[in-house]
Amino acid sequence: MAEESVFRGVITFLDKIGVYDIILPFLLVFTIVFAVLEKTKVLGLEKIDGKDYTKKNLNAMVAFVTSFLVIASTQLVSVINQMMANVVLLLILGVCFLMLVGVFFGDKEFTFKDIPTWTKIFTIIMFIGLAVIFLNAMDWLQYVFAVFEYWNEEWAAGIIMLVVLLGFIIYVTRDSSLPKKESSEKK
Q1: Where exactly are the structural domains of the chain?
Q2: How far apart are the first and last CA of the chain?
Q3: How confident is the model at residue 166, as a pLDDT?
Q4: What are phi and psi of 54, to 5 degrees?
Q5: pLDDT for 171 beyond 90
Q6: Is 182 left (phi over 0), alpha (psi -120 to 50) or beta?
Q7: pLDDT reported for residue 1
């Protein structure tokens, strides 16, 4: 068996003393609740030298008590930990998508306005590819393939026919004779 690294030992130690189950969820909930109370001024304002200030002591106490109530529930802490991991995963996926699409945009701004059709097609392909990679990494791709397990040729042919017909209807019914919108500002 491979020897555990020093850094893995530190992570294990922090887990044993409760950093991930108590301290971090406490700080997260406290910060969010305190920020919301400060922003909304729900607990009122006090005047000092003619200026309005939030009641920081009350806001801090409510945030403190709320944070302790949250960490007292192991179920809530578990949900918070799982949710934050998923939020970070989505954030990383978004950055990866922007990096992949950035290959086609170079130093130009990422926008679908005034770009060639081939760039739009490759951007969509990149999004689909990233979605497949994500589904595979999360072991969800097996559930997607399970849907196709019960399909036969009639189902596949019917769906392909519907997609082709829908595409044809959209192509025929779009009105290309209308003038394109012009910018209201003249340069």
Answers
A1: 1-78, 114-171
A2: 70
A3: 92
A4: -70, 160
A5: no
A6: beta
A7: 53
